[in-house]
Amino acid sequence: MFDRKKETWKKNVFLTLSIIFCILTLFGAVLCWTGKVHNAGYAVIPLLIENVFHAFYRNSKKALEENTK
Asked: How far is CA 54 from CA 3, 32, 36, 43, 57, in A?
């Protein structure tokens, strides 16, 4: 059984986390470019986590669209 309310809530949470980690990625990249840190991990690790949450967001959005029809 498909729970539309739960899936919508999950989609919103995944989108929010994806945006937060995208901002952290940009912040880490700026720190690397300005020379304040000498490790690209400050930008790469949040990017990987952001990609995971964005994939979860796309799957939730797709599930909602398929079950709406």
From this structure: 21, 24, 28, 16, 5
pLDDT band at 30 (very low <50, low <70, confident <90, very high): very high
Q: How many CA atoms lie within 13 A of 60 on its CB side?
A: 19
Closest CA to 52 of 29, 20, 7: 20
> Whole-prediction pTM value?
0.90
Count CB-CB contacts under 10 A for residue 5.
Answer: 7
Residue 1 has pLDDT above 80, yes or no: no
What's the chain's length in residues?
Answer: 69
